[in-house]
Amino acid sequence: MAELKNEERIQCEKVFNHFDSNKDGKISWEELAKALKALGLGSSEEEVRDRMKEIDGDNDGFISFDELFAFQCAHPDLMKNVSDKL
């Protein structure tokens, strides 16, 4: 079980590092929009806003690694799909 969690964490790090284009340790709305559009996973402002609301647990306007990892744990198939597209 611990090995599976480690694999999920590595997968999440890959996605997070790809989305965090300015490498400031958080994913902004703009970075999320750009990444989703590039992956063909939603490009409308409403889709990005909805995804941000869903992942940004503390509502600070940014997605932290921990928030993305929590989202991945809740939606493993979706995150695997994203990771496979990178």
From TrEMBL:
PROSITE patterns assigned to the protein according to its UniProt record, in alphabetical order: EF_HAND_1, EF_HAND_2
Name the record gives this protein: EF-hand domain-containing protein
InterPro entries linked: EF-hand-dom_pair, EF_Hand_1_Ca_BS, EF_hand_dom, EF_hand_pair_protein_CML-like
Pfam families: EF-hand_7 (PF13499)
Record-annotated EF-hand domain positions: 7-42, 43-78
Domain of life per record: Eukaryota
Keywords associated with the record: Calcium, Metal-binding, Repeat
Matching Gene3D superfamilies: EF-hand (1.10.238.10)
Record GO terms (molecular function): calcium ion binding
